[in-house]
Amino acid sequence: MIRxxxxxxxxxxxxxxxxxxxxxALAFLVVPLLGLLLRAPWRTLPDRLLTxxxxxxxxxxxxxxxxxxALCLVFGIPLAWLLARGEVPGRGLIRALVTVPLVLPPxxxxxxxxxxxxxxxxxxxxLYEWFGVALPFTTxxxxxxxAFVAMPFLVISVEGALRAADPRFEEAAATLGASRWLTFxxxxxxxxxxxxxxxxxxxxxxxxxxxxxxxTFAGNFPGRTTTMPLAVYLALETDPDDAIVLSLxxxxxxxxxxxxxxxxxxxxxx
Length: 270
What we know:
This protein is mainly α and 270 residues long.
């Protein structure tokens, strides 16, 4: 069937009406990245990467993105299991709510977090009055904001892996007397480990590049909440070369994520 479809595939010259818009779209996506590479201060790049401001933003970004990813793993994997295997009413609605941060403007997400977790928020007021915990405009607030926008990437990836996994192995473990927790830990998790890794990488990359929710909920305080995207925004007004250097770091991370996940995407396409 596939060979027949390929045999009858249209051949010859490609229609110009499709090629020209395709080339324009490709140029629209690639040329700005090339411009970033061409305008980069390559001679002073090592020195700029070692400056105190860039170093603080880089260390803070890596720390917060890693903590946010760990938070997403702890809470996102059970949520993905609930969506894939749990028999709960309104599962479709829950899945829709989980994906809302994917399409929600990050600034709106930051405002929502501020209204809920701020000192006068629905939950934040009790955290502050009972425990003295104030999340807004702190490093912990950066982690919360990044986790909010990045968790859907992990949940969707792990849920897809769970749905594709063969449930017969779990059934076999249950017939051998394994508890549900033991089955989940020894059978389910290893079987969906590639999905967890892929979701974790996407989650980490999304958290590393978060801007809108972070600046709205956590503010912009150097050394405490100024991550690399925020540092890029500030450097554009004072030192554009520093902004280019930080942008190159984020671009390198994005390319590394694409390279790391290319085999998984190719397998999915096949």
